[in-house]
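At this stage, I put together a protein sequence along with its fold in token form, as given directly below:
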Amino acid sequence: MKTRKTIIRLVNVKKYGFVTEPRYYFFGWSKFSKVLVRKSVLTRLIKARKFLPKCYNFKIWDGQRSRAVQLKMIDSFRRRFHSQYPKLSLKKIEELVYQFAAKPLIKVERMDTHRNGGSVDLTIVNAKGEELFMGTDHDDLTEKAATDYYENKKKKKLNAAEKEARKNRRLLKRIMIKVGFINYQREWWHWSYDK
């Protein structure tokens, strides 16, 4: 019995008015300067954009990602963690890496992954094209990257910048959940759609 191969059709989000900054292309990891996603993901992003404040938009850093790019990203994460924690064992470094990166499987079945164009890394930009302050940059490898970090930081009073980050993350989370995306809780920027 033959199995049917699923054909995934990808679309360029920039053609639909989204701001793009293909970071892995700029890092030299990817040969492609376009940010591509599945059509169903694009449809949800267009819907989500309607809930943003007037003249705001999404800036999308990453969509579909090849295995080769995934391997380069994982290698970068390993180096960053080793530099940050030089006394940590290789096993512990690997555990940290895979808290922030998917294992680079040869074949990925799930549709809600970067490899299949079902995940996006994004933020919100204002009418001037400036990123809203979210408290960390994209691909931050600290606990501050967790979507609810500022919600859970109740022991200490939040300063003005932290309150701003919390407000902006709340906006992003509310909108993305409203249109059916699921967040990877360790990364405020990572949103997936499995249909």
About this structure: The helical segments are 23-26, 39-49, 67-84, 90-100, 149-152, 160-178. The CA atoms of residues 48 and 176 lie 6 Å apart. The first helix runs from residue 23 to 26.
